Amino acid sequence: MEGSSDQPDTPKPVSEPQPRRAAHLSDSTVGPLPGRGLEGHRWIARPSEAYTAQALKERLIGGVQSWRDYPVSLRLWFWLIPAITAILGGILRFFRLDDPPSLVFDETYYVKDAYSYVVSGYERSWPANANDSFNSGNPDILLNTPEYVVHPPVGKWMIAFGMWLFGGDNPFGWRFSAALAGTLTVFLVSLIALKLFRSHTLGAVAGLLLAIDGHHLVLSRTSLLDVFLALWILAAFGALLMDRDDGRRRLASRLAAQAAASPGGRPKPSQLVAGPWLGMRWWRLVAGLCLGLAVGTKWSALFFVAAFGLMTVLWDLSARRIAGIRSWFSAGIIKDGIPAFVTIIPIAAVTYVASWTGWFLSKDAYYRQWAAANPAPGLDWLPNSVRSLAHYHLEAYKFHQGLSSDHPYESSPWTWLIMGRPTSFFYQTPKQGTPGCVVETCSSAILPVGNPVVWWGGTIALAILLFWWAGRRDWRAGAILAGVAAGYLPWFMYPERTMFIFYAVSFEPFLVLGLTYVLGLVLGRSGDPAWRRRSGLYIVALVLVLAVLATAFFYPVLTAEVISYQEWRMRMWMPSWI
Question: Where is this region: Disordered (predicted)?
Answer without folding.
Answer: 1-36
